[in-house]
Amino acid sequence: MVKLTAAATTSIPRIIIFALTLIYGLAGLFARDPWKNEDAIGFGGMWALQQGKTLDWIVPHLAGRDTSLGAPFPYWLGATLMDWFGPLIGMSNAARLYSAICFFSAALAIWYATYLLGRRQEVQPMALAVGGQPGRKNYGMTLADGALLIFLACIGLAQRAHETTPMMAQLMGISIVLYGTVRGLDKPWQGGLWTGLGIAIVALSSNLTLSLLIVSSTIIAVIASNAKLRFRWTLTSTVLGLIGFAIWPALWYLGNLTPEWQHTALEGWRNVPEMRPTPSIESLGFLSVNFWAYAWPIWPLAIISLAHWGRVKEAGQWRAPHLCIPLSLFAACLIYVLFRLEANEHDLIILIPSLSIIAAFSLPILKRSLISFIDWFAMFSFTMIALAIWIIWLAKITGYPESTAANLARLLPGFQAQFDYIGFIVALLITAVWLAIVRWRTSRAPKEIWRCLIISASGTTLMWVLLMTLWLPTINYAKTYRYVSDRLVSIIANTPGCIDTSNLGPAQLASFSYFTKLPLRDDPSCNLMLTHSSLEAKAYASLNKKTIELLWEDRRAADRDERLRLYQITPAGKE
């Protein structure tokens, strides 16, 4: 058990935490292109649906490529938002509203799940002899604020939470499952509805492996928990979950898909992204190296929480809902990542909701020394990062410091920096807010248990907003295919025929399809071939007794390894 006074559980003013979440979630969503790699692929699937026919909606795929992108919900939502808002704000901006919906839904679900768990009897602070202990509602709200701040403070979440990837829908679905399971402890009908909805979202946005792991982990959490859920929750969540699993296969039959397309859809549901039957050494290696920085400061707080509450008998130890439910879902997500063929940073995002809730329960028991370390580490780190962002931006605009400006010109040849008044003012404002928060934190000794998180959450927001204002044109120039696409269009001009893209990666195909509107398809019979491998082009020509002529060679300015080549293909002996 813990000892706390009511003063330690004073909630953060609603306007502050609302503004922090809103600024973080919206920054970087607009005024940019789809970025290589996963962001462009996700957008490309949405774009193909928005431009396509019934088949494209039933089996999401990139334009010109008959390979399933996997479960359809992210692409349905993105394409619908493009239909509604694309004419007003642009197609790529409208598609990224999908990311905002997923992010804010996940944040809200994490807050409410933690709030409900924080009100439970087994986690309440000890009653003080003279009174003055916090009330249940205030204590729950403070822990919920802490969970949200921990979620926002996650270093690895910044860029990945603003991209149009299926993992954003998975993040939302898992967070809703967490909330629904907790809500079902006191309101079974309502909780069952939310749990079933979350399972349906996961089933329609991920492969079968993750979907079944989430279902299994939820069942295990319910069985293991010392707070039993009622039959009404079980019935409601089961019915809705089964409907979620049945929706996509039902569309295969209602849409009269050919056996080939049904096989393509089923294979996408099974193995997009690719899985292995045993834990992947590559994924294990990636996780062991990258997880600690990605999930800072969540993982140390989660370990402290588990170490304390796991041995508190009065709280039910490991069977208590505030540990049992999120820990079970975390284990399922961790198993999924380990069985990925080759995990990447986007996969790690599904680990964060459960860890954020667990970590929030460390706040009442943190030692002053650890609080000071987290605060000063965050303060120093984010101040240095902000200073570096400002200095490099100054070099881009003024040419001073000269060495920095020269390095930028070498890394991004052809980039012309322009002064953006709006971005500059926003950057100044967010920097001023950061300095005010640092001054508030260092000039007094607040007692609130969330005090060690406000610097970390504000720091990630500062870093991301500065990048998405001062550096946005630079980052966009480095990550977009727009300029390469424009040059490709000028080369092809009035050349008739189609372009074979069989050797292009999905991000390249998605980007060229959006930016060029050229007839791109995976078809070896086309008279033009766009590829990044001259060896593959020559092998194709030799095998099929054709001749190839290099018409164009180019690359993105920031990518020295990539070479895009356009070949004219003619049968041997013809000119």
Automatic annotation (TrEMBL):
The chain crosses the membrane at residues 12-31, 97-118, 138-158, 194-223, 235-254, 291-310, 322-341, 347-366, 373-395, 415-437, 449-472. The keyword Aminoacyl-tRNA synthetase does not apply. The keyword Transmembrane helix applies. Keywords: Membrane, Transmembrane, Transmembrane helix. This is Inner membrane transmembrane protein. The lineage of its organism: Bacteria, Pseudomonadati, Pseudomonadota, Betaproteobacteria, Burkholderiales.
